[in-house]
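Slide 14.
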Amino acid sequence: MFSDWPSELVPQQGWGDEAAISAFKDAIPWTVGRDFVAGTAKHLAGSLGLTKPGPPIKSKIVHDKQLQVLMPALGHGLSFPLSEIDILRDCVSVYCEWLSALLPNPKSSVPGPILSDPNHYARIIINHFYYLFVPRGAQGPDVINRQAVLCHRVLRTLQNIAQNSPCLSEDTWQTLLLFLLHINSALLSPPTIKVPDESEGAPSSTLSLNFTGDVPEDAGEQLCERVLSVLFETWLLACARCFPPPPLWNALRESCQRWRHRVGLIDQWNRINFALTRKLIGFMYGPSFPEITISAEDDLNIIPTNMSRDCIAQVWYRILHIIGNPVDLSRHTVISKTPAFLKYAISSALVIEPSQHPCLQMLPSIFLSAMKGVSGLVDAFLGVPNTSLDNLNQKGRQISPSSSFSLSAECRGEDAARLLANGRPKCNSILHLFGPWLFEAALINCNLQASPGPQHKSDVGSNAGSGSRRPVSVFAGEGSRKSSDSSAPGDSHADRLANLTPQHFQSGRAEALGALCRIFCSKKTGEEILPVYLARFYIALHQGLRQSDPSVSASHHESGHSSSSRSHGIRNGICSETAASILVNGVDLFRLDLQGVVSLVPSVLGVLECVLPEGELNAPSHLPVTLLRRAATHVLLSILPLPLHFQGLQVKEVGSNSGERLALSHLRPQLVNLLTSALQVETDPANTQMLLGGLLFCVQDAALCEVMDSISQHNFSTDRDHNIMSSGASDTVSSHGDYNSLDESCEVLSDGSLGQVGSSNFSSAATSHATLTSATDGEVLPVLEDSDSAHALFVRAIYLVCHRLISSWKSDVNVSLAGLELLSGLARLSIAEQDGLECKRAVKWLCDYIAYQCSRPPRAHSKDLHSTIVAAFHCASVWLVAHPYLLQDKECLATVLEVVELGISGSKSQVKSSDAPRLKHEKELKPASMRVRDSAEALLSCVLSQVGTFPSVCGAESLSSLLDEMTLLRHCNTWGGSDQLTRDTAAQHFRYFVAQNSIMLALLEQPLGNHQDPQPTVTALIRGPFGRVAWTMQLRHLPRHKSSAKLYTVNPGRPLPTNDVGIKHNVKPKYFPESVERIPLCKADKSIPTLESVIMNDEKSALEHDKLLQILDHQIAFEESVRRQVERETSEYPDVETECVAPPLCLEFQTARLLLSHFGFLSLDALQESVESAVPSLVALDSSMAGFARDLDVLDTTNNRTVDTAHIFYVRAGQSAPQDIMSNVVSSSSVHPHFLEFLNGLGWTVNVYQHPGWTGLTSTAFTVTSPPYDGPVDVNHGGSGFSGRSHVLYWSDALSEIAFVVPSPTFGQPSPGHQPSSTNNINTVGFVLDQCDRVGGGGTGGGSGSERSDSLPPYDGDVETGSSISSHTSQISYGHGNENKNRKFGRQTSAMSCNDHKVFLVWLESFDDCYTFPANELLCETVTGLESSSWKDKEANVYIIYIHALTNGLFRIKLQGQNAKLNMAGPLVDGQVVSRRVLGTLVRQTALNMCRRRRLESDSYQPPHVRRKLRIQEMVQKYRYEMNEPEFYTHLFTSPLC
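Slide 15: predicted structure.
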């Protein structure tokens, strides 16, 4: 910078007023001069008042000539040997007191001439102080300490004057700065030495070269930190008050370059740089930019407050370059090329060349310290939080706070997610500043000549002559030969320079590589980096990845195995520092749009093979192995999609000059083997979950790719030579319909083989035949062919995950859940070569896993353990629904039912096949927990009702029948259709019973329009915990195929009469014996008066008696005529005049009674309360009571599957306002071309008014209503068509359903929360009765099952739409009286509390916008109606999946909000890169799994069937008929309308 300016650093012999002092010394002898100086100094020091009490004596020096005599003497005294320490102390004391003349309040002992011209005499004093700091040669530590005390006092005095003096002139400032430069040169320029203890008899003039780096014993090393700190702090003061001229800056630069062998120089350089950078960043980027943390209070005030911004910028840039090129610290020949080193080499008999001095052994640590300083400055400009000077002092720091944050599994909050400042400078700007140093440091000891072949196949660890390393001449040659001849015995040249091999500078090189990686990984979306920087960066990374550890190289060289080692590192689990630094700091390299970065894949892959498959990894000591493996896992996940995405792309590896190119598709088997091998040896839970996510992605990507290759109309081209940065449109089909069908039908993966390929089999060509061996117990797995095919991957994944689940993952809840989620994803994949045996094994392993977990000792049972069992039951349900043929296997069916029995009852009926089975009533009902029992019941229901039948004829949108009371009644024979039919009216025609306190029967005894063949018919609506079904049953005496045949003739003919009917006896019954009239009456008989006596005594009674007799006579006559008629008709049989006709058909059968009787519900035991339950087995409900129809609606809207909602937002670059974000989806022209394709990959489109399933809003869910408006939907919308006003995206399977809503602004249309009028509500079943045959195909596809909010709250027409609704309070009151108000049933906690979380899917045009996304402001747009009443009063849990489209056609994923105990829901992983074909599927599965894990963690969650059961029990308590057995039987014979 100042090369054209002369340096003002004159030779030391001409400094310090040498002429005057030399004249004094030459004028008198030494002894006389010593006595004169001692007396003078003692006298002057005594007058200062420092040694004896009393005030200082006023100085008697009044003339300049007096000072001209005294000051040379005092200056001469400062040059005395350290043995004259008292004289030196007095001289220092006098001069320090005299310098107070420059302060505002000078001491009284200061001579008058000095007070009159303080700057002149201060310059003289400062010059004389130089002699105090000049080293006195070899001295003992005690003597050096005495000198250091005096030097410290002088430095404090000068520093105080520089800070507080108001009258320092420009010349004085320059003199002070020159003085500090000269004393630093005198102390620091010579090589560091260590003096042996004189007590050991060593001569004082001899220097020992046995340098060990212990506590220094030369004055320079002891004073180094102090003199340097005073120099830099004073220099900063001078810059603020009297800016140094260019010659002084040149002198400082030249001096610092001569002191670079001192550790203290780099420490002070870093300290000043950080202080200046803190000020510089503060005014350049504003207060919101993260500032450097400086812990020391003195360092906070090191920069003068009056220094202007321009001055700070100038000083910062000059100080930054003051030591020259920091990379020179790795070149000891350059550092030792100074006069001081040359002088030492000439005078020493043991050192031949300056570069052989032992003190240069410290250069590796000095170089590392300098690189840490540069790296810290890079972090400061990037805005990395917690950047501080203290971090530089950490041992082996090659990990910045940004890298440690991004690799931390615990740091997932929103604050910690912002790793880099949003307003940070561009990469090019930082590279302009630090790039030359960092690139040069990263390429230390690298041979940049192109290798003859592909580097990933070359050998490493060979000797220097092989060309793998640049030979360093200073370590061999003539100097070495001379040294061997002249060195002392036992102290060879090689031993002294052992630490100066180039490999020992690898720590600093690794620091530089880490800083470069962080710079390039800070690239913003759309930012351009100069090609020259990219090229140099790729070369540096390639060299850093291929450089092996020195100890490894040596060991391999000695063992003769150098040719077998890989160029990217040694395979025996050893990772070099440079490679580790690249992995840890460059996790985002393949997640950014860096042009040509795929050329690094072969190099990176070689390092990953050193890190991931090895169980015993030898990592750098300062770097945790777990963190290194996590970084390697991140990198692996980011390159997994490349081979299939760029199938035909040929890449040329960096550093190769051959014409050979490598196809990325050839690396896929190697990547797959690496992934499975890493899973087998990984022990960290977070790393394992990440690897599981990558494994599921591999299988799904392969399966979809194979299907699309076979059935898509535009298959992938075999010669993909398109540009790397192309959009990748060929990765998926264009038709949304085809995309949906592929996405939904291809969610089942093939079985690949499990296990791990041996380390030696990880070649780039990948094995087509691989013997897989389990790392746990040595189980040999099947030999695979085409190991990267979907089927092979499917088998391998099943083996690996199931085996690890049972062997080593069962104790970790998060890993177990991740493994079960992966198995669920595999179950839904569709593969051409379906292997039923592998699927059967998967189900068998799941059952074994459940059995093992349930059998663990009681102390091991916890909420987490039961969560894994619940998840395993769910996974088994997914497998059986996706593969119904498994239940046709008797062994598989028995295994499933056995584990269901275990879950429900807590034990198996037959533990061993040889044991006698125990019956149900013999076992004690003791399940592991209620959650486990509920999950087992759900699996049993799934086996009985869903396996093989899903989707039903009603479509995937509904598991229940779409028929209800109103629909059935409209089709009855007795329904005229004239009256308005309501739910209350329809309920009156049904009989309602509840069986087993959990199943509601609605029985309709009227036939459904069947006049041709009337039979005893009953229609039953059965509402149970798992849904609603409709059955029509007829009582037939013959099979249906025989009922049409008439078994009697039409005219059978009259039978012949016969009179032989026997003898008929007409016997009249007698009610009393004949002797009764002969019994005499007693007085008691006469106590009641006779009728005659009463009539005779009362005229009125006589009249009434006459009327009664007339009535009796009339009735007797009528009955007699009737009797005679009957006798006549009956007594004349057979009569030839009477026709024999068939009786009329019976139309009243009381079929409800028949049905209940046939099923055994009408026994006396069933109608009575039992010990187990206070409710009888059969209870009749009163449907005429108020509120019955409403509660019936509540039960029907309580879904029997989990329901979830995900809200989708599109964020354009730079947007952070909610309204702007929602406006993006109005038009397709304002969104990414792949955004709509992504939406269609999430599910299928449904109309919310004609959709019987979940719609994302309670007001439109599970009902069909008339649309409130008939406005057309814009076909060119950008996603607003799925806002929930008319359509949403929907997906479901047998266990769960999810709606995807795209919120958009309203333009005069009703909001999605608009509640339609109740008069327009038409139940879904009534609307689709005539269309049942056409509905069956609706909504095909499987998907990721999950659980979340399971039901809807009751609809209350009086409740406003916007109010929060809770359908289930913690304490439910039942019944009519006060006695039932506090009665509780089942789980008492609210199931709605686990619905207070949201899932956002956010598409980002610029990745940096994820840090400013207004999630909390958008919560008001995502209300579904399922939230609890306190939802708005507390902070909601928001899970966000960010999706960023890269220019190469891949997609980068970022997850936010997974900070709960059961975190990291898969299969997507934070930072993962996925392909276009699987984006929708993986995002949907992750959203579902997020919700499901949230429910597993919630203590108040109730499964859907439990909530439905509680609803039924609630209705029993409210509407139960209180009847005894006779009354119940009488009720059966009564018409429901009576």
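Speaker note: The two ends are 109 Å apart (CA to CA).
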